[in-house]
Amino acid sequence: MLYGITNPHGGDIYGGGVTLDFSANTNPFGTPEGVMEAVRAALPEMHRYPDPYCRSLVDAIANFENVDKNYILCGSGAAELIYAYCAAARPKTALELAPTFSEYALGLARVGCKVKHYYLTPANDFRLDEHFLYHLEDTTPEAVFLCNPNNPTGALIPPELLKKILDFCKEAQIKLFIDECFLDLSDDGISMKTYLQDYPNLFLLKAFTKSYGMAGIRLGYCLCSDSGLLKAMAQAVQPWNVSSLAQAAGIAALKESGFLQKTKDLIGVERPWLHRKLEGFGFRVCPSSVNYLLFQGPTDLHRKLKEKGIAIRNCDNYPGLTHGWYRIAVRRHEENEKLISAIDEILGE
């Protein structure tokens, strides 16, 4: 729980006034009914401690991802696993992109790690390219943190570039952390999980939060063939960190392939529509491969939308971004129309 500090993320709709939330990139359809039913069915067992090994959930993830179950560690949301990874790996130096998700740097700061940024530029829509390899050769950090697709830009890293980065990191004995939490909602994004066995330095982060609309129940997992690292991570958190309700929800979610496809079909229609509408206002909009868009507009847009009950993600706290950069989730058409109509009203005032 946060106490006495500013929330650095979207999704905080609890302060009052927000009726439509575009600040959190969760599934526009919400939570699948099959997951809701699984949680309801698990309620009578709430008096018991949850399985500390998440046995059934791990088996389900192993089948879903087609990986060795010994490569899997579950956590109370992806965020917990980020902090556990930092506590277990304890690198002295790390390299991350800018802009990117803030929790990597926050987790690394807790263990005294010096974090450097590789700044992406708006000139190429904040996309990572081969120049990153030259920077790696010059800096050789102990750990590299990448987000694929990146948050908040929505850009996928080309798989051939990722493989080059992976090979370099293995040769240079650099740990490579790749956040794939949005990959299942992306346009043909390719996971690096096929390389896990031969690259023990590779760590993949996954979550149920975005794909299955399960942000409130807190469930994530990671994939890595370094059993020593996973054991150290497990020792960094309490033994009952994944609730019985979350475990039941996760098992049910992995059966929802049709739900995921329906979501991707919607994103494939609504994201281009939103992109065109935002560009029609004269905003700078970055191409995205996933269920959110990064754009540049008036510096007070988020405040004026909040007055109308609409929350968007103000991105000026991301390293590499300034006032006027925003991220919005791709939602259902009627909700997207309300956002665009509200922006149109604000610009006309």
Task: Outline the structure in words.
The protein is of the alpha/beta class and 349 residues long. It has eleven helices and 13 strands. Strands 2-8-7-6-5-3-4 form a seven-stranded mixed beta sheet, sandwiched between helices. Strands 9-10-13-12 form a four-stranded antiparallel beta sheet, with helices on one face. Strand 5, helix 6 and strand 6 form a beta-alpha-beta unit. Helix 3 packs parallel to helix 4 (103-110). The protein is globular and about 60 Å long. The chain starts with 19 loop residues before the first strand and ends with a helix.
Write the layout of secondary structure elements.
Blueprint: E1 20-21, H1 33-42, H2 55-65, E2 72-75, H3 78-89, E3 93-98, H4 103-110, E4 114-119, H5 131-139, E5 143-147, H6 159-171, E6 175-179, E7 202-207, E8 220-223, H7 227-234, H8 244-253, H9 257-280, E9 284-285, E10 292-296, H10 301-307, E11 310-311, E12 313-314, E13 325-329, H11 333-348
Parallel strand pairs: 1-11, 3-4, 3-5, 5-6, 6-7
Antiparallel strand pairs: 2-8, 7-8, 9-10, 10-13, 12-13
Helix pairs in contact: 1-8, 2-8, 3-4, 3-7
Total beta strand runs: 13
Strand content: 15-25%
The chain-level structural class is: alpha/beta
Number of helices: 11
Calculate Rg over CA atoms.
20 Å
3D shape: globular
Largest sheet: 7 strands, mixed
For the record, give the distance between the C-alpha atoms at the N and C termini, rounded to a whole number: 39 Å
Overall residue-averaged pLDDT value: 96
The helix/strand order is EHHEHEHEHEHEEEHHHEEHEEEH
What are the segments in which pLDDT stays under 50 over at least 5 consecutive residues?
none
Helix residue percentage: 25-40%
Query: Could you give the order of strands across the largest sheet?
Result: 2-8-7-6-5-3-4
